[in-house]
Design brief:
Largest interface: A-C, 46 and 42 residues
Order of helices and strands of chain A: EHHEHEHHEHHEHHHEHEHEHHH
CATH class of the largest domain in chain A: Alpha Beta
Radius of gyration of chain A: 19 Å
Chains: A alpha/beta (289), B alpha/beta (655), C mainly alpha (128)
Radius of gyration of chain B: 32 Å
Structural class of chain A: alpha/beta
Helix content of chain B: 25-40%
Number of strands of chain A: 8
Number of strands of chain B: 34
Mean pLDDT of chain A: 96
Number of helices of chain B: 19
Strand content of chain B: 15-25%
Structural class of chain B: alpha/beta
Low-confidence stretches of chain A: none
Largest sheet of chain B: 5 strands, parallel
Number of domains of chain B: 5
Distance between the termini of chain B: 23 Å
CATH topology of the largest domain in chain B: FAD/NAD(P)-binding domain
CATH superfamily of the largest domain in chain B: FAD/NAD(P)-binding domain
Bound molecules: flavin-adenine dinucleotide, iron/sulfur cluster
Distance between the termini of chain A: 33 Å
CATH architecture of the largest domain in chain B: 3-Layer(bba) Sandwich
Shape of chain A: globular
Helix content of chain A: 40-55%
Low-confidence stretches of chain B: none
Strand order of the largest sheet of chain A: 2-1-3-4
Oligomer: heterotrimer
CATH architecture of the largest domain in chain A: 3-Layer(aba) Sandwich
Chain lengths: 289, 655, 128
């Protein structure tokens, strides 16, 4: 079994356990081991773009160094962790940033030059495992389920750095759901921002952002939404009940839908951790008893 | 190299106070007399004046001189003048040289003493040069007085007509079945709003009927060889599957053909038949069969066109034909295309039905267009109540598309908005713009007219366009009030950037240079805008950069006049100050071939079949010296700029 | 806050952006998800800096409304990333020990519900 270093991050250990557990379980089924870093710390949750900000780069880089003990590839799941770790890594290794790197190294025990490759679990599924192989392991096809894949900001931008997918029309998650038998629905707000990062400081503005996105998702004819980001999940899920019109769009982590199709235990799926209860929809589609 | 000493005269010009105000001319004269072997040294107020030239001529004759140095202004200004004077006096003009003591001395040196020293040194180096100068005679080459114009848009048509009207034969080559180019697709034209077809078709017909013009449509260039005055061109005339000698353009077959495909002329907004005419006024008025889509050619069944053709014109065994042409000059008028909307992700990747580009909207406006001139939108044929026009879609955008300004979009957007308002009176037109650039005759007034007619201009660039129900939502900004603006539209028109039609491979075929975007580069951006660095190739219209019709037409006439000048004589004189090859030294390494910007050097195999050396195509060499500098063995030597000569000049200069 | 000409240099260095690159097309504002509430909007914020009105921007509410979504930088035709400029401006304010939020201000229920990520990011971004 191939194994990759795996970084869960803080939110996946607490509020978003299902994102994490479903990933580990599905990886197992697909013949890949996600080997958690022996020790890890918070990535910082937001990438500091300030050019001289050493203090906030130490944390993510420590994780990248730790990953080296397991493999050259570090798999992430949370969109924010992916964004922060990948960009911190690129910034450190960027040509011309040698002085910065030297200064940063004063705060770390191990010399490091950026050789850990930060990837997202979606990329592991697509490039290491292959969507065809995922498809072969489907035991419960998501047939008939109309899913809006919501990438949000952190997966796709800055595209020049992340090179994850087209920032204006990402399709990687859609392709995965198609392989699982679901019907991906296209909508123009796949990469729009839900306002998550200002949720704490300016909840009223974040609410408006999220609601604009929700309206757009609903208009696309989607029955449910899938995301990679705990912040998006929370925001899109939570904001719906505050809206004058009730769309009742359950929002899943993509790993939950993957787990459902691969037939993992319902306890791991943890479908109770949602504001908008997804069970009625899944029952209606015959995907749940 | 000559060994016996020349009798050289030096003429130092005061250029009023331009030179004499800084350089101490009498002192220079004195020093030259004392320290050089010049036969005579004279100064004059203005050497270029008639008395000045007479003095030079008389002195040369009286003193029996065989070389002259004129110390004056830059050779770009008066070299020609004085070489002619020298020739009139009976010496070889290439033994008369300019010592530039104005631009390179008096104008740039403040200290009078230093300027005087410097002037004397400059002149001394030129005396040395003349000592070595060989007498040269201009190279004469024959000229085939027949032109090829590539591209049958308005620019190509105009260039062909101008050349043809002077009496020279012209071949007008067009890749499409009909000439006309983009102008034939336009509805009305800014700033006068005259009907585009109405002003273009007379020219198309004139080109067709002109006794000196041969039309070759549905044809492409296969190869080009030769050089200025003597090109050999192979043209591929594509198989039409219709015998154009028999076809009358009656269109009966078009009516019978059962298969429809997307119509390029209507930019995909409607369909055409497989046997088709580009548009009703096509010139020549003939049909072609689009082989890749033809049911008979592809699947062996159908032949309805053949059955119904009253003239027996269908020709199933038609093949591409290669025609060889000999021409003396080539005009490039290959025009432009619009940037592919697929490249504009935030504007919907070209996938949104009700987001069209400028040319599509021209077709929508056009009486011969997909909706017969009624403004309707592609998705459902509804008359749009609000249209949003988005300027700079891919222009002025170095990060995501083209860095340059496409120049015509401000005007055609204003035009299209006005025309829309004329057709749909209660309709609303909103234009998002960064700047409105109206630098043309009548343009600012035209823009004023647009705002007078109630068109709303919002200053800000659009960031996102998406569908919501059957509407299109545009996210823009009004930077003047500092507000984000959302507009709900029925139809959006993108003023997508103009991009060159000529592909890289085509330019390589022609051995022409293109800028980073693919526009052909002119020989000099200001002073030689219609010529290219490759002799005999001229540029017309939008192949060189974004242009509107008046500009394309004037440039076409400019290119035509350059062709006519070239054809004025049946031989061509080429300056003889060019590079040569010392075949004994040349190892045939070919370094010089790569550095030559004029493609004037090529490998040749000597008669013995063994030794390879480089050969110079003399007419192409502009004498820039790149090869001489690059040649590792000193075999590439430029006439009158030989290594030894330059070395000695430098020595004198450093004395 | 003390403002002087060195601030421009600071902002350009901290953000890695050249202020003069912006030609005020407004595409950043047009795409910004929070522009409806942001004052000044991204393009005007850059304009203020171009005009040397640093304090006006540093004291504004606008820089705190950036959701760090990166749309402005992604689409800017001139390659200017306003998100980075806003980050630099916030950093300058924060490094002057002026904190933007405190825990007391945050709704308690929210603390129980929302993912950690939201708080860590907020306190990383908005406190000294
Ligand atoms: C939406 C829109 C509206 C416009 N409205 C106006 C207006 O109102 N007023 C105005 O003045 N201008 C207007 N213009 C500009 C106008 O279209 C151009 O100025 C004009 O068409 C340029 O003519 P051209 O002959 O240089 O190029 P084109 O019209 O592009 O002609 C080039 C020709 O060369 C042919 N060709 C290309 N490559 C080859 C090849 N390799 N071999 C053989 N043939 C080839 C092409 O098929 C074409 O026929 C508008 C442009 C647009 C996009
Ligand atoms: S043979 Fe081809 S061109 Fe002729 S009618 Fe049939 S499909 Fe059309
Ligand atoms: S998009 Fe770029 S150039 Fe345009 S206003 Fe914003 S920062 Fe300036």
């Amino acid at each position: 079994m191939t194994s990759f270093a795996y970084y869960p991050g803080c939110t996946l250990y607490t509020k978003s356990k299902n994102l994490d557990l479903c990933a580990r379980e599905t990886a197992q089924i697909l013949g890949v081991e996600l080997k958690e870093l022996e020790t890890w710390n918070c990535c910082g949750a937001i990438f500091s773009t300030v050019t001289d900000d050493i203090a906030n780069q130490v944390a993510p880089i420590r994780n990248l160094i730790e990953a080296q003990k397991i493999s050259n590839k570090l798999v992430t799941l949370c969109a924010a962790c992916y964004n922060v770790l990948k960009r911190s890594n690129l910034y450190l290794a960027k040509a011309g940033n040698e002085t910065y790197r030297k200064r940063l190294m004063n705060f770390l025990d191990t010399e490091y030059n950026g050789k850990t490759e930060v990837v997202h679990y979606l990329e592991t599924l697509k490039y290491d495992i292959g969507f065809d192989n995922v498809k072969a392991k489907v035991v419960k096809s998501l047939n008939g389920l109309k899913v809006a894949s919501y990438y949000g900001c952190l997966m796709v931008r800055p595209s020049e750095e992340l090179k994850f997918d087209d920032p204006d029309n990402p399709v990687m998650m859609d392709d995965l759901f198609a392989a699982l038998g679901a019907t991906p629905v296209d909508f123009p707000f796949k990469g729009e921002c839900c306002g998550g990062y200002i949720l704490v400081d300016k909840p009223e503005v974040a609410t408006k952002c999220a609601q604009t996105v929700i309206e757009n998702m609903a208009a696309s004819g989607a029955e449910c939404v899938a995301t990679t980001c705990p912040l998006c999940q929370y925001n899109i899920d939570n904001q719906q009940k505050m809206m004058s019109k009730q769309y009742n769009l359950p929002i899943f982590y993509f790993t939950q839908l993957l787990g459902l199709a691969l037939g993992i235990d319902e306890k791991i799926l943890n479908l109770n951790n949602h504001f908008i209860d997804p069970k009625p929809l899944l029952k209606q589609k015959g995907l749940l008893q | 190299m000559k060994s016996e000493k020349k009798r050289i005269g030096v003429f130092v010009c005061h250029c009023g106070i331009n030179i004499a105000g800084v350089v101490n001319v009498p002192e220079v004269v004195k020093r030259l007399k004392e320290t050089t072997d010049a036969a005579v040294v004279i100064d004059h107020q203005y050497c270029c004046s008639d008395p000045g030239q007479n003095l030079i001529k008389e002195t040369i004759q009286k003193e029996k001189l065989d070389g002259a140095v004129i110390a004056c202004c830059s050779p770009t200004l008066h070299e020609n003048t004085f070489r002619k004077t020298a020739a009139r006096a009976g010496i070889n003009p290439y033994n008369c040289e300019i010592a530039n003591i104005r631009e390179q001395c008096s104008w740039v040196t403040e200290d009078k003493e230093k300027a005087t020293d410097k002037a004397a040194k400059i002149i001394k180096t030129l005396i040395k040069k003349v000592q070595y100068d060989e007498p040269l005679t201009p190279i004469s080459i024959p000229v085939t007085r027949k032109a090829l114009v590539i591209g049958g848009g308005v620019a190509g048509i105009q260039a062909a007509l101008d050349i043809a009207n002077t009496g020279y034969p012209v071949i007008l080559l067009e890749k499409n079945p009909s000439i006309g180019g983009k102008m034939s697709m336009l509805s009305e034209t800014f700033p006068t709003l005259d009907c585009s077809q109405c002003i273009l078709t007379p020219k198309m017909v004139e080109a067709k009927q002109h006794p000196n013009i041969t039309l070759m449509t549905y044809s492409e260039i296969d190869s080009v060889s030769g050089y200025i005055g003597n090109f050999k061109v192979k043209v591929r005339q594509k198989a039409r599957y219709v015998d154009w000698d028999k076809c009358t353009g009656c269109d009966i077959c078009v009516g019978k053909c059962p298969k429809k495909v997307s119509d390029e002329f209507n930019c995909g907004l409607s369909e055409r038949k497989v046997v088709y005419k580009m548009f009703p006024q096509s010139v020549p008025n003939r049909v072609v069969i689009d082989a890749p889509n033809c049911l008979y050619i592809q699947k062996g069944a159908c032949r309805l066109c053949e059955k119904h053709c009253p003239f027996n014109a269908i020709k199933w065994n038609d093949k591409d034909e290669i025609k060889e042409l000999e021409v003396g000059a080539i005009v490039l008028a290959t025009g432009y295309e619009l940037l592919d909307k697929q490249r504009l992700g935030p504007y919907g990747f070209g996938k949104l039905k009700n987001v069209v580009d400028g040319l599509q909207f021209e077709r929508i406006l056009s009486a011969s267009g997909p909706f017969m001139g009624e403004v309707k939108r592609p998705s459902d044929g509804k008359v749009p109540e609000r249209i949003v026009f988005v300027q700079c879609a891919g222009s002025r955008d170095p990060e995501n598309a083209m860095a340059y300004c496409s120049k015509i979009c401000c005007m055609y957007t204003a035009k299209q908005a006005i025309l829309y308002k004329h057709r749909v009176h209660q309709g609303e037109a909103v234009v998002f713009y960064i700047d409105v650039r109206t630098g043309g005759k009548g343009f600012e007034e035209f823009y004023k007219r647009a705002t007078d007619e109630g068109i709303l201009y919002i200053r800000g660039k659009v960031s996102k366009i998406f569908e919501k129900g059957d509407k299109v939502i545009v996210w823009g900004a009004d930077t003047i009030t500092g507000k984000k603006v959302e507009v709900e539209a029925d139809l959006v028109v993108l003023a997508t950037a103009m991009v060159p039609a000529a592909e890289k491979s085509f330019a390589q075929l022609m051995k022409l240079t293109q800028d980073e975007y693919g526009w052909f580069t002119e020989a000099h951006p200001k002073l030689r805008p219609v010529e290219t660095l490759a002799g005999g190739f001229f540029l017309a219209g939008a192949s060189q950069g974004p242009k509107d019709i008046p500009e394309a037409v004037s440039q076409a006439s400019g290119a035509a006049s350059k062709v006519i000048i070239l054809f004025a004589s049946d031989t061509l004189e080429h300056a003889p100050v060019i590079a040569g090859v010392d075949e004994d030294l040349c190892s045939g390494c070919g370094v010089c071939i790569d550095v030559c910007p004029y493609k004037a050097r090529e490998i040749q195999v000597k008669e013995d079949g063994k030794k390879k050396t480089v050969k110079v195509i003399e007419v192409l060499c502009e004498g820039c010296g790149a090869c001489s500098a690059a040649c590792p063995v000193g075999a590439a030597q430029q006439k009158n700029f030989k290594d030894k000569q330059i070395e000695d000049m430098v020595k004198v200069g450093l004395e | 806050m003390i403002i002087d000409e060195t601030i421009k240099k600071d902002i350009e260095e901290l953000s890695g952006q050249k202020l003069s690159d912006c030609y005020q097309c407004g595409e950043c504002t047009a795409g910004c998800p929070t522009a409806f509430a942001m004052e000044p909007v991204p393009s005007q914020s850059i304009r203020l800096l171009q005009l040397g009105k640093y304090s006006e921007l540093l004291e504004s509410a606008g820089i705190w409304l950036c959701a760090a979504c990166n749309v402005c930088g992604e689409r800017c035709p001139r390659g200017v990333d306003y998100g980075k400029i806003a980050d630099a401006c916030r950093t300058i304010v924060l490094r002057n020990k002026v904190t933007h939020i405190t825990l007391e201000k945050v709704d308690k229920k929210f603390i129980l519900d929302a993912p950690q990520q939201a708080f860590i990011a907020a306190f990383r971004k908005f406190t000294t």
